[in-house]
Amino acid sequence: MTQAESVETRYSWIIAITAVTMLALAAGAPLTVVIGLVPISETLGGGRALPSAATSLAYLGTGVGGVMCGLLAARFGQRLVAAFGGCAILAGLGLASLGQGWSLLAGLGLGVGLFGNGALFAPMVAYVSMWFDRRRGTALALVSSGQYIAGFVWPFVFERAIAAFGWQATMLAYGAFAAGIVVTLALLVLRPAPMPVGSAAMRVVPGQRVLGMAPNTALALLATASFLCCVPMAMPAAHLVAFCGDLGIAASRGAAMLSVLLLSAFVARQFWGWLSDRIGGLWTVLAGSCAQVAGMLGFLATQDEAGLFFVAAAYGLGFGGIIPAYVLTVRELFPAIEASWRVPALLFLSLSGMAFGAWLAGAIYDAVGFYAAAWWAGIAFNIVQLALVGFLIQRQRAVSRP
C-alpha cells in the first residue's frame, strides 16, 4: 500500500495519543475499587463479594455501553460521545462515594461503566482503527493500553490517597480530575474519522461470508472466544492486592505488584501489536492465550513476595496483546462500515468475561477462603478458549487455500 492509498497521516498518531490518554484516565475509575477493596468491604460489610460485584458491573456496563455508544458515535460523532463519557465518570464516582452498597453498585455500573467507559473504550478503539490501515495493529495496541497505563500510574496514588483521606474522598477527587481532562481533550482534538481509500476500501464488502460462515456466526464465535479468555484475564488484576494481603504482604507491595503486572502488559502489548501486523490477529490471539495459561499456572506455583513480583511481570507479558488482536481480527475480516458496531459487540463479550471473572474470583474466595481454586477455574476457561481459537484458525486456513 502506497502513502497515497493510505488514510494514515501525522494527525492519525495525534488521535491515537489523545485516545490512549483519555482511556488511561477512564480506566483509573474502577481501580479505585480494586485498590480500596479491603477498606470498602470493611465499610459496607458483607465480605468482598459486594465490591467485587461493583467492579464486575463496571466491566459489564462498559461492554453494554460500548455497543450503545458505538451506535451513538456513528450518528453524532465520537467527540460528543467521549465528552459525555467524561462527565459520566464524575457522576458515577460521586454516587459511589456516598458509602452505601446500592450507590457503589449504581455508581460503578451506570456512571463509570455504562455511560463512562462505555462511551470511551469500545467506541474509541473503533474510532482510532478508522484512522489507520498500514499500522493498524500497532495503533490498536497503543490505544488499548490505556488500562495498563492506568494500572501502572494510579495504584500507587490511590493506595496512598485512600490511606490518607479515605476511599470516598479519593473517588470524588479522581472523578473531577479525570472528567476535566477527558472532556477538554474530546472537544479540542477529536474530529470525524476518514473513510477507507484505495485497495483497503474494497478488501472486505458487506454480506460476504467470513471464514466460510455467515458473518454474524463468525463474529459470535470470535466474541465467545474473547469472553472465555477474559474470565481468567480479570482474576489476578482484580484480586492481586487482596491476594497479597491474605499472604501477609503489605497492601502497598500488592499495589506495586499490580503496577508491575500492568506495566509489563503495556510494554508487551506494543510488541504484540507489531507482531499482529505481521502474522495477523487470530494467530496473535492464540500465542497470547497460551502465554496467559502459563502465567495463571505461575500464580499457583509461588506465594512468596519476590516470586509473585516475577510471576506478575511474566503474566503481564503474556496476556497483554490478546484484546487488540481480537479487534484487529474483526477489522481484518469485516467491512470498515460495520466497525462502529462489530468492534463494540466483540468488546462487550470481552468485558462481560472480565466482569464474570472478577466476580467469580471473589465468589470462589468467599466460598472456600483462598484464591487457588479461582486460578484453576480461570485456567479451565482458557483451555476451552484455546480450542475455539484453534477451530477458527483452521477455518481461516481452509478458506485461504486456492
From TrEMBL:
Pfam families: MFS_1. The keyword S-adenosyl-L-methionine does not apply. Keywords: Membrane, Transmembrane, Transmembrane helix. PROSITE patterns: MFS (PS50850), PH_DOMAIN (PS50003). Gene3D superfamilies: MFS general substrate transporter like domains. Residues 1-22 form the PH domain. Residues 14-397 form the Major facilitator superfamily (MFS) profile domain. InterPro entries: MFS, MFS_dom, MFS_trans_sf, PH_domain, Proton-linked_MCT. The chain crosses the membrane at residues 12-40, 52-73, 80-98, 104-127, 139-157, 169-190, 210-235, 247-268, 280-301, 307-329, 341-361, 373-393. This is MFS transporter. It comes from Roseomonas fluvialis. The lineage of its organism: Bacteria, Pseudomonadati, Pseudomonadota, Alphaproteobacteria, Acetobacterales.
